[in-house]
Amino acid sequence: RMGGDEFTVILSQLNGADGAESVAEKILVQLALPFTLVEEVVQISASIGIAYYPEHGGSSTLLMKRADSAMYRAKAAGRNAFRIYAPYADGQRTEP
Questions:
Q1: Cα separations (Å) of 19 from 14, 26, 96?
Q2: What is the mean pLDDT of the chain?
């Protein structure tokens, strides 16, 4: 748990980039399923940012920063989505 509503998942044994995207899609599907909380049916969504080691950074701090940047792009896209870090996302530089 990184913050109030932020969690980190570290996937250390993937077979290529498709693996992380597949995991992100599965997480989004499972979180979107309705569930009962006390006596009320609730649904939640998630915004997921993905950064790859070593392509997007060589340290955990830099990878977290870049995954966070990608997550905010997913939120801006309407939530319940994932985005992969890109230094020039949507035609604009996402960080210095």
A1: 6, 11, 29
A2: 88
